[in-house]
Amino acid sequence: MISDKIKHLREQKGLTQSNLAKQLGITRSSVNAWEMGISVPSTQYIIELANMFDVSSDFLLGLNHSSTINVSGLSATDIEFLHATVEHLRSKNKP
Fold first, then answer.
1. 95 found inside a domain
2. Domains held by the chain: number
3. Most buried of the four, 12, 20, 48, 67, by CB within 10 Å?
4. Domain of residue 14, residue span
5. Position 66 pLDDT exceeds 90
6. Global pTM value
7. In the predicted structure, residue 77 carries a pLDDT above the cut 70
8. Rg from Cα positions in the chain
9. 83 neighbors 73 (Cβ within 8 angstroms)
């Protein structure tokens, strides 16, 4: 659910509900309502959340279980290392 993803991503970034609300220009109670599943963010805020947390809007909406990693500023060697690490974890977790 989007509520769980918002909370998880917010906590992963070390943000409080108040911090996130301030960055989005909304009230803390709005963020709390999203995380409690009382309401859902508008399209505008889904896009802002996706950009803020470096995930796709599809991921937030539960349409895609993959997330993205911003590799700008990394060398080609670093990107190759990340790719190899992901492939290693995938093969390790296959049944």
1. no
2. 1
3. 20
4. 2-61
5. no
6. 0.69
7. yes
8. 16
9. no
